[in-house]
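Contributing new records

If you add data, match the layout below exactly. Sequence lines come first and carry their own label; structure lines follow with theirs. Keep one chain per record. Anything else will be rejected by the validation script.
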Amino acid sequence: MKNQLLTLGNIVELQGKQYTVTGIEKSKAFDCDMVTLDEWLRVEKSEIKGVTITNEWLGKLGFERMLKSHLLYKGDFVFKRTASLFSVGIQSNDCFIQSYLPNISYIHQLQNIIHALTGETLEIEL
């Protein structure tokens, strides 16, 4: 996993189980990045993987689907998910602004984008 993509609070996977990142540090002894998961499990960053975005995960993170469309809502943001890409729109003063977000496949990437756009941290109890 690329270092710049991982932040505190991100949801990741290790050996088929999901964890929350609670610490990230450079290990001088092992010359690698170490990640603390759920406050107690410390592993090399290279051992963890991203959690693939699914409709189930989006629901756990607070996204709501409008009818049976591809649109998902979270606050003032509207997300459209297709098989290969996300787009995000912002509704403000009767104006709709949309931007495409290619290469978003994992929950931690989506968490980082939401945080960058809104300052909100998408978290769930695992």
